Amino acid sequence: MCFRAFCCKGPPSPRTEYDVVCVGLTGSGKSSLLTQLCSENTDSIIPTTGFSIKAVPFQNAILNVKELGGAENIRKYWSRYYQGSQGVVFVLDSASSEDDLETARNELHSALQHPQLCTLPFLILANHQDKPAARSLQEIKKYFELEPLARGQRWILQPCSVENMDAVREGFNQFISLLEEIDQEHIPGRI
C-alpha cells in the first residue's frame, strides 16, 4: 500500500457499486452464469430457493446481485425484493419449451411494467444459445414484444451461454454503461 501511494499517488479509486435484481424461471441459468462470473466452482449448483446475493466484480464496477429463485411458488414474491434495485437482469432459456417461454414472457412483461422497475435499465440474457433448439435474438425480440413494450426504456438483449462467458461479460459491461449513464444524469448541478 505504501509503495502504491508513493508511485501511483494514492490508493486506487473505489469501484462504484450497483444493486441489481436478477430474475428468471428455474433452469434459465441465473446461478450458473453468476457463479461463472465470480470465478467460483460450478460443480454443485442447485436451483435457488428464496434468494442469494453475490458481489460480482467487473473492471469499473461491482454489481451486488440479488438473485431470486424462479420456481412458480417463489415468483409471486419477487416484487418484495425489488426495492432499492438500480437495474434488472432477466435471464431466459432461449431453448425452452413453448409453455416455459410463454411464462418467461409474462414474467418479463410484469417486471418491465412494475412501478419499482419500469424506469430501471434491463439486461435480458437470452441464455442457452449453444443448444440446438435456441431461438435467435430476432425471434426472442419479436415473441417477447420488446420493441413496443420496452419503448422508452433502457434495455439490452444479449445472446449468451455458459460456454461463451465473453458474451455474458459483454452484456454486463453494456449494462454497467447504462447504470453509469443514469448515475451521471442524477448528479446535482448537471444540465
From TrEMBL:
Domain of life: Eukaryota
Alphabetical list of Pfam families matching this protein: Arf (PF00025)
UniProt KW keywords: GTP-binding, Magnesium, Metal-binding, Nucleotide-binding
Amino-acid positions noted as binding Mg(2+) in the UniProt annotation, renumbered to this chain: 31, 48
Keyword Cytoplasm: no
A GO molecular-function descriptor: GTP binding
Chain positions recorded as GTP binding sites: 24-31, 70, 127-130
Endpoints of the signal sequence: none
Family classification: Belongs to the small GTPase superfamily. Arf family.
Name under which the protein is recorded: ADP-ribosylation factor-like protein 15
Organism the protein comes from: Scyliorhinus torazame (Cloudy catshark)
